[in-house]
Amino acid sequence: MTVVAIKPREQLWIIPDSVPFALENAGKSSQLVITYNTLGLEEGVELPASDYLEVVIELLKTERDWEVLSYLLVHLPTQLANKHFWCGPKTKAPLATLIAELCRCIPDGTLGKYISQESWPGSSKAREAQTLAYHALSVLISYHTLVPPEIKQKMVDTFQGGLGGRGDSVVVCTHALTLCAFEMESIIVKLLPRILEKLTQIVSNPSMAVHILTFLSM
Fold it and tell me: Please, how many CA atoms are within 13 Å of residue 10, restricted to the half-sphere of its CB?
């Protein structure tokens, strides 16, 4: 038996993060920092949210450090859930590109392909990154109006493909397909036979039965 020696790595970030300053007004919107200047005012600082999305897309394609990629994938769903943050017209194109990129790299298994094997922490593999990416893609369902019908179908196809993965990713994909049934009804109806065929293969798993029944009831 071959024993693979894995060097211990110093973890650069942890959850929850702790900050060395008070956040007394964290729940209040800023009067000076904005992401979309609706009134054309000269006061305030406009954050280039579209530039940030471009960086996110580039990291998904080329990042070589697991610490950076994992930090991005863990926090990206929470950021995307704040739709007001991305409401500016400049973010529409990169959001659509982000959806298309996730629908490409998850099925292809190319997410994190530039990370060397010894860089993965413990026994983790690229599938851990894919599971995290499913979370981000599920939040992006609410942005489906930004992409053409063929990309919407790829989103559903990607979640359907995730039904054959590990338990945690299967749960995320089942919940995502439930959301798609409301947001993209016509596409779900079109692909429903294939989805049901996939679900029948895993419905005997007790931990998955309740999630599948929820999808079917919807």
Answer: 1
| DSSP letter assigned to residue 30 | P
Binned at pLDDT 50, 70 and 90, residue 188 comes out as: very high
From start to end of the chain, where are the E strands?
A: 33-34, 45-46
What Rg, from alpha-carbon coordinates, does the chain have?
20
- Type and span of the H or E element at 25: none
Mean pLDDT of the chain: 84
CA 147 to each of CA 58, 73, 91, 99, 159: distance values in angstroms, whole numbers, following the listed order: 19, 21, 13, 8, 16
CB 104 within 8 A of CB 157: no
Q: Are 131 and 168 in contact (CB under 8 A)?
A: yes
Residue 57: CB atoms within 10 Å:
17
Which residue is it, tokens 């599971």?
A: 131
The one-letter code for the residue type at 133 is A
Determine the average pLDDT of the residues in 64-72. Answer: 89
At 79 the pLDDT is 94
pLDDT computed for residue 34 by the predictor: 72
Percent helix, percent strand, percent coil in the chain, to nearest 5: 65, 0, 35
Nearby residues of 201 by Cβ (< 8 Å), 6 or more positions away:
164
